[in-house]
Amino acid sequence: MDLKTIFDNVIEGAAPGVEAGVKEALAAGIGADVILKDALIAAMDEVGARYEEGDIFVPEMLVAARAMQAGLALLKPHLVGADSESAGKVAIGTVKGDLHDIGKNLVAMMLEGAGFEIMDLGVDVSPQAFVKAVEDGAQVIGMSALLTTTMSNMGVTVEALKAAGLRDKVKVMIGGAPVTQEYANQIGADGFAADASSATRVARELVG
Ligand code: B1M
Q1: pTM (2 decimals)?
Q2: Contact 178 CB / ligand 1 (< 6 Å)
């Protein structure tokens, strides 16, 4: 099965087709990173564009996301390495009000592959839950936001860390489609990453 067929199956929300396609592509020797970028992520970009144009609606977007996650689960063992020594503890979550978790899961997966211990806080994570994670030993807070309406909760979380007297005990890394380096500077985050592989590099720099 070629990458275009996997791409089409994601858009149609056909999880079994995506799973079959990913298995075949891996068996044919296509790299997991190529399948991820050129089929799965490319399909989600197309889904976003079709949603914006009004060609599809939230239910179609949701089934496409589920189909993508099914493919991602099969790629995980190929993307995650076998580093055994912990590179540091990262608490990662999607900010309050935001339910998008595919990018956050991908970042968590790549960080895990780079040897980081991951505390996955899930989606719709309150500033207080991030504060609690720092009290529980997180050295880095990783916040993801996909909506322009929720990214401000990253700044609210930074303020909550300050109010709890914990700001100098943790590094804050942010990312997600609407997030930029300028926004990171504006809210006083320590790092910004545009994608999952640069997130690994940034996290390594942050823990020194
Ligand atoms: Co939503 N959605 N959605 N959606 N959705 C977007 C984000 C949107 C851009 C679509 C569009 O209009 N083109 C738009 C946002 C517009 C805006 O704010 N400007 C949008 C909207 C409007 C909405 C709703 C409001 C729709 C509605 O209900 N009317 C609603 C909001 C729900 C909520 O969160 N409260 C909604 C709902 C949903 C679904 C639930 C149906 C589903 C999510 C399912 C899920 O995640 N489990 C969904 C989806 C699938 C999308 C799109 C199509 C795809 C997102 C995705 O998974 N991309 C998206 C359009 C798009 O992005 N093209 C869209 C693939 C993923 C690998 O990329 O998440 O960007 P991404 O992550 C990247 C980087 O950003 C970065 O690394 C990742 C890997 O490279 N990164 C980090 C991410 N987090 C990081 C953290 C880091 C570092 C890097 O450090 C900690």
Answers
A1: 0.91
A2: yes
